[in-house]
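Progress report, Aim 2. The chain analyzed during this reporting quarter is listed below.
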Amino acid sequence: MKAAFHWCRTVFFLIPTITAYTIVLGSLSVLSSLWPGGRGSFAHGCARVWSWLILATTGIDVDVHGLDRLQRRTTYVFVSNHQSIYDIPVLFWSLPFQLRIIAKESLGRIPFLGWHLRRAGHMLVDRQSPDRGRILKDARRLAGDGVSLIVFPEGTRSRDGAIGRFKAGSFLLALESELPVVPVTVTGTCRVMRKGELTVRPGHVQIVVHEPMAPPAAAGKGVRDAKRLAAQVREIIQSPLKADRRLE
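Predicted structure tokens for the chain:
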């Protein structure tokens, strides 16, 4: 009975309501980008309001730990596990930085949301044939503008909350950009909305922001170094997840 209620709530209330938020705020974001120099803070502000509205409407409360480890005026590469499509609004609302995501190119084809992503300077990547040169150039441009990046190195959402293999490409980008990497653990979003399901449930989410990892010396920027960094970051992110799964 409860499952039927949450399905009906998702289909007849949450989807129409969140669609309305997306149309209104996506339109405002796109319009702001038409003004000279307007592809930045206002669009990000729209994304943060959109995120807060989604969390409030769905009934999600978020606890954030570790923000005191960060310097507000520093540019970072935030590396997070990926449990649910709710990870994005959770992170955008919880991290007080100008943020851009590296996401699959197909998201750019979604009306309003995709228009916002393209016009606000997010990095949309063709996973079948990624252009590393362009990706690195865009990352350096964003870093020069004081914008931080969010990457999900698993490449896809987890079905059960367990962490998947981290792909080295995201870490090679971080190494070549010479930006500090911040591991971020998200727990609880997989219980809000699981991959492959339409049902959304209220819930509690926790974010742990781990200690930033300084970029290595110039010599340590090869594929082997990226794989080593990926393994280190994965282990850091996985530690709180192990505790969360023991509580289930």
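Strands lie at 60-65, 77-80, 99-104, 123-125, 148-151, 181-187, 203-209. The CA atoms of residues 48 and 93 lie 5 Å apart. These observations will guide the mutagenesis work planned for the next reporting period.
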